[in-house]
Write a structure and sequence with these properties.
Bound molecules: nicotinamide-adenine-dinucleotide
CATH architecture: 3-Layer(aba) Sandwich
Number of helices: 12
Shape: globular
Strand order of the largest sheet: 5-4-3-6-7-10-14
Number of domains: 1
Number of strands: 17
CATH superfamily: NAD(P)-binding Rossmann-like Domain
Helix content: 25-40%
CATH topology: Rossmann fold
Structural class: alpha/beta
Length: 369
């Protein structure tokens, strides 16, 4: 996609010399995104420091799919980030996904979390600003920027919390209420992304993502709960349910998210400055207890589990109201919760070797740097 120098408007002609940068491109969402871009014949630069266990496996898989430029760079390093971004003349879009992803890890080392998420994002924005270009910048923010949501009316049902006041989920007008170091660092990044659109005219879009699931997600106890429970079920591990297990999330299949990324890039200027809540929405929700029961059906035996205190910053309920996305860009999720769980279970079964041995030594926590 090129921009007219006169109008600044996107022109929908794709050119193979245009480049898309994916930070965190060796992670779960990143590798699925890069795979799609390669399949579409796009030029891609992946920036990743490979700190996430399993990211090297994703990178090798991507390298088997096609050619792309890989830069092993830690976004906390401003100069290295600027070099990886390059001069920007050929830059169509930046999909910024890299960062520290677990609330628990952020509580252990808030500084490392801040540096990866807030400083790392500022470094990406500054590197892009220095190019003088105007690539579309998509940022993977999080529902955690809305805090504990204690003000949302909830009713306790047998297996889940339900919101009577927000049957369609939470929309983007909900007040920001950063909670936990991760909530603060992602929230700061979310606001920097938004404000670079206002101050410097960069076409930025903030996506406040709910729970994403899909292949190449090496969930751990601290993050990626659906994948973590399924991996534990496959490996016969006991899991801990923090809280009463009635916490509810909406689930989004990663390919639906990648569809959205591509749609937003194609719309460029039209969606510049927008903020969207992104998830499976009110029709695709699940509680932990409900996942346990689905797993029992899948494997024909219950998953061994115990209960522990609720975790800091854990929302009892979050469901994204995706009405705005549907209205503005015509995007809707496709896979149902059951289809998504079956598909991920199938992927894990087909890639059992990776799960059993490939990420051996996978710690219970994401690494704190
Ligand atoms: N997965 C979800 O359900 C979800 C939900 C909401 C928001 N998000 C956001 O989406 C993004 C991607 O999430 P994911 O699930 O793919 O996580 P992931 O951990 O699989 O991917 C993140 C990638 O970033 C890399 N990375 C981490 N710190 C880095 C640094 N300092 N410099 C360079 N690379 C670094 C990691 O090696 C990893 O490959 C994250 O920003 C996350 O906060 C994810």
């Amino acid at each position: 996609m090129r921009r007219s120098p006169q109008t600044g408007q996107s022109q929908m002609t794709q050119s193979s010399d245009q480049r898309i940068i994916v930070t965190g491109g060796a992670g779960f969402i990143g590798s699925n995104t890069v795979a799609r871009l390669l399949a579409e014949g796009r030029r891609v630069t992946v920036i990743d420091d490979l700190s996430r266990p399993g990211s090297e496996i994703n990178l090798q898989w991507l390298q088997s799919l096609g050619d792309f430029d890989f830069r092993r760079v830690d976004l906390r390093d401003a100069d290295a980030t600027a070099r990886a971004v390059g001069d920007g003349a050929d830059l169509e879009a930046v999909i910024h996904l890299a960062g520290q992803v677990a609330v628990t890890t952020s509580l252990v080392d808030p500084r490392a979390d801040f540096e990866a998420n807030a400083l790392g994002t500022l470094n990406v924005l500054e590197a892009v600003r220095a190019t003088g270009g105007r690539p579309v910048i998509l940022f993977a923010s999080t529902n955690k920027v809305y805090g504990g949501l204690e003000w949302v009316d909830l009713t306790e049902r047998e297996t889940r919390w339900e919101s009577t006041s927000h049957p369609r989920g939470l929309d983007e007008s909900a007040p920001l209420d950063f909670h936990s170091p991760y909530g603060c660092s992602k929230g700061a990044a979310d606001q920097y992304i938004r404000d670079y659109g206002r101050c410097y005219g960069l076409p930025t879009v903030v996506l406040r993502q709910s729970c994403i699931m899909g292949p190449r997600q090496f969930g751990v106890e601290d993050q990626g709960w659906v994948a973590w429970f399924l991996i534990a079920a496959m490996r016969g591990h006991r899991v801990t349910v923090f809280g009463d297990g009635k916490q509810v999330r909406d689930l989004l299949w990663v390919e639906d998210l990648v569809d959205l990324y591509l749609r937003l890039i194609a719309r460029g200027e039209e969606v510049a400055g927008e903020i969207f809540n992104v998830g499976g929405g009110a029709e695709r929700t699940l509680s932990l207890l409900e996942l346990l029961s689905k797993i029992e059906t899948l494997r024909g035996a219950p998953l061994d589990h115990g209960f522990s205190e609720p975790r800091t910053g854990d929302q009892r309920w979050f469901v994204a109201d995706t009405t705005r996305l549907a209205e503005r860009v015509g995007w809707r999720p496709t896979r149902t919760v059951d289809e998504a769980i079956d598909a991920l279970w199938g992927w894990l079964r087909d890639h059992r070797q990776i799960i059993e041995t490939g990420i051996d030594g996978l710690p219970s926590r994401s690494r704190v740097r």
